[in-house]
Fold:
Amino acid sequence: MDKLAILGGSRAVQTDAGDMFTWPIITGEDEEAALEVLRRGAMSGTDVTVQFEKEYADWFGTKYALAHNTGTSSIHSAMFGCGVGVGDEIICQSMTFWASVLQAMNLGATIVYADIDPDTITLDPADVERKITDRTKAIVAVHYFGHPTDMDAIMEIANARGIKVIEDVSHAHGAEYKGRLTGGIGHVGAMSCMAGKSLAIGEAGMLVTDDQEIYERAVAFGHYERTGQIENPELKKFAGLPLGGFKYRMHQLSSAVGRVQLRHYRERMEEIDRSMNHFWDLLEGAPGLRAHRPPKGSGSTMGGWYAAHGIYVPEELGGLPLQKFCEAVRAEGTSCGAGANLLMHLHPVLNDADVYGHGEPTRVAHSDADVRQGVGSLPQTERMSERLFSIPWFKHDRPEVIREHAEAFRKVVAQAAELQ
Ligand SMILES: *Cc1c(COP(=O)(O)O)cnc(C)c1O
Structure:
């Protein structure tokens, strides 16, 4: 075997990547759709958006889809839709993008972080159960890095107690849990479609639900121009103004591009899924590395493999530090970054910030319980931040190229001792 590139050998990756990593894929079809909106001066309308919503709801098999200007706002609306308010608690995982749950603060609610399962990097249902109190109003289940959360267990826990489940699908468009599309399993699904995500259409978000109450509350919250269509008389009497002062309408450049991207999404996603599974198949059995994907035959899938990661087991590589491992892999000509999202439960915004002038940290301002969680409170979560590495996100199934990238990882694994 060749010497490691970081020690002066030749790189495992020799073939130019070309458009292997280019995303989103934009064609004349997207350009025409965007131009149509621009030329018509319809950027702030809702006609294209309403069509996009119909197509989105068809895809998810839900009664309703409500378009938003960001993923952050779609999750905020989902919380309001579920009736989250002053003094309530929402349970979420700490290793995630902040917008999975931080919005709870401006509804007067607070956040309780539960630990994760170290194989799926999603909520550990047993710890969720331990974190439930009589103030728990909702659970946000994040299908982290595309891996579906154990929704059967989460739904059972929630339904037994009348707690709502919000799925954050921002990493997992098209991912299935036991044959069911994630986002359509909980009481409401919400997701980002910003340009870095696997369904990438600009700054945008989408809420999907079968529940008329959640839908109408979400409309009342951020879509003042549609409040006339609300049926619930308790909400309808406020029609005309948004409840709480937010405006969350989707920009129609996003909805126009979204319609085109959605038409091609399944086919493109399937190619990504083949190529990413191919990459992990080539690394099957490599010491120190574990694929972050559901077992084959489980009926669960990774959708578009947003920000795909692997799990690092340094004990099997003589304790080689993750940073060093990633550096050597990168030298072989592929991408590999150590770590994942900041841990929310340790961040000063959650622990110290008095955002609204309550005279005490916002996290605890509306609760008689101090729910703040310090170092050591979420052992699996804290341990896994040192054990995750990003892998290349292939958009095309080109076996020769994928083989070279997998070889980059194999080579470093085989010669890990040289790096000590
Ligand atoms: C991107 C993201 C969001 C927020 O979406 P925006 O469109 O950026 O507002 C929420 N949750 C997760 C897990 C995300 O990755």
About this structure: The longest strand covers residues 136-142. The chain has a mean pLDDT of 97. Residues 70-72, 75, 96-97, 99-100, 142, 168, 170-171, 192, 194, 205 surround pyridoxal-5'-phosphate (CB under 6 Å). The longest helix spans residues 252-282.
